Amino acid sequence: MNLQETLNWRYTTKEFDTTKKISEEDMAQVKNLLRMSPSSVNLQPWHFIVAESTEGKARMAKGAQGFFHFNAPKITNASAVVLFCSKIDADDAYFNHIATTDDINGRFPNEDIKNGFLGAVKAFADIHKYDLKDLQHWMEKQVYLNIGSFLLGVTTLGIDATPMEGIDVKALDEEFGLRAKGYTSLVAVSLGYRAESDFNSTDKTPKSRLEESEIITVV
Ligand SMILES: Cc1cc2nc3c(=O)[nH]c(=O)nc-3n(C[C@H](O)[C@H](O)[C@H](O)COP(=O)(O)O)c2cc1C
Q1: Closest C-alpha residue for ligand 1 atom 9
Q2: Selecting from 1.10.10.10, 3.40.109.10, 3.50.30.10, 3.40.50.300, what CATH number does the domain 3-92+132-204 have?
Q3: Which residue minimizes the CA distance to atom 27 of ligand 1?
Q4: Cβ atoms of residues 12 and 188 within 8 Å
Q5: Given this model, what pLDDT does residue 1 score?
Q6: For position 159, what pLDDT does the model report?
Q7: Catalytic site includes residue 74
Q8: Which of 29, 54, 167, 211 is the most core-located residue (most Cβ within 10 A)?
């Protein structure tokens, strides 16, 4: 599929075929996709809970009760569900961890360049911590960027997805003990294969977008 075909093929799947399971090989690629997303200063301020078993999906479905019940079948009937979580805070120890990891991966020809990078990471983080006072929000934005590349990336594997902000993040934070580990949940993405009867498939419900002339100004 070329890019145009890929964009037309994907849509938010509302009903999964429960008989189809994503292969282990494809799940390995899915996990690598999560890992390879870009982020500002390579901060990678995220963690992912991946539910593949019936038991794991049942735990994930605790975030789709009450007001959020409409998303429950999209979780329990999926092949796998990824919960995207953001760091709550970032400190010097974490910045050092990022710089050391980059160093081990061969990014720095010498100590000066490593220290320059570390200084830049801290400078950007300080802007968000003190000037803009949005450190947590900034880190959440990096996680959303990952979600964007994830949604397109899984499509290239022929995998359907359902991004869901309609989840009880407090319940999921408690279920997976996230806050104590310095994380909070943001969005769940269910993965699998569309059911024939899915009302939201593009042959039954066409995609709708604002016109290009309204959203793009070429200067
Ligand atoms: C961050 C985000 C959160 C969303 N939350 C939900 C949700 O909770 N439940 C749902 O069924 N769809 C959800 N959607 C799907 C959107 O409604 C959908 O992406 C949009 O209508 C465009 O349609 P398309 O994805 O089929 O192209 C969400 C999408 C995004 C990107």
Answers
A1: 164
A2: 3.40.109.10
A3: 11
A4: no
A5: 87
A6: 98
A7: yes
A8: 167
